[in-house]
Amino acid sequence: MSTKEIGLPLPLLGGTHDGTEIKDGKLQLKEVATDSTGRSVYASKGTWESSVISIGDKVTAFQRVVKTMIGTGSNVDYKIYTKSSTNNIDWSGYVEIAYIDGKINSPVGLYARIKIELSSTPSPALLTVDEFTNGKYNSDYVSSSDGTLRLKRNFQLSPTVESNADGYLYRTKIDRSKFKKINTLIFQ
């Protein structure tokens, strides 16, 4: 996890979140699930864009976005972009900051916006979709009562029996649209 100290006070609760959230006052990727072992699963990428920041007479204070960086190991990469405007209507494009000193590379203006992109390296997670117990999905063609989901292979049919001098004739109707293939028929 790496921690950044922002050189200009930013209202992280404001702005636009897309795949990100604020947790304990810090911007992070949004938690989307919990795996089967109880670990959090996060979005693979996300962005946060600030509301319009009125620089006014704070032009010198807005020379750097990142003051300090404390890295403690993380699989999250980040990019910080800024854009500026002199009239809050016409904006420059987003320009990435200089990470060595946190210096802003966008043109000087009276208004600014900051965008932070977060992305992570995927790591394995164990997700259990269903345990397939208690026959929850049992139907005429599917079985799920023993912890697995599988197609039924044996079907009980009730044929009509006719006898004649040569033996017995068993008849039943099988809707062939419900079966792709019939391997064998066994009468008991």
Q: Determine the mean pLDDT.
A: 76
The rough form would be described as rod-shaped
Largest beta-sheet details: 6 strands, antiparallel
Q: Indicate the proportion of strand residues.
A: 35-45%
Runs with pLDDT <50, length 5+? 1-6, 67-73
Number of helices: 0
User: Number of DSSP strands?
Assistant: 16
Terminal residue distance: 67 Å
Class based on secondary structure composition and strand pairing: mainly beta
Radius of gyration: 32 Å
Helix content range: under 10%
Provide keyphrases for this structure.
0% helix; two-stranded antiparallel sheet; disordered N terminus; 188 residues; mainly beta
Q: What does the model show?
A:
By secondary structure, the chain is mainly beta. It has no helices and 16 strands. The strands form 6 sheets. Strands 2, 7, 8, 10, 11 and 12 form a 6-stranded antiparallel beta sheet that branches. A two-stranded antiparallel sheet has the order 1-9. Strands 3-4 form a two-stranded antiparallel sheet. Residues 1-6 and 67-73 have low confidence and may be disordered.
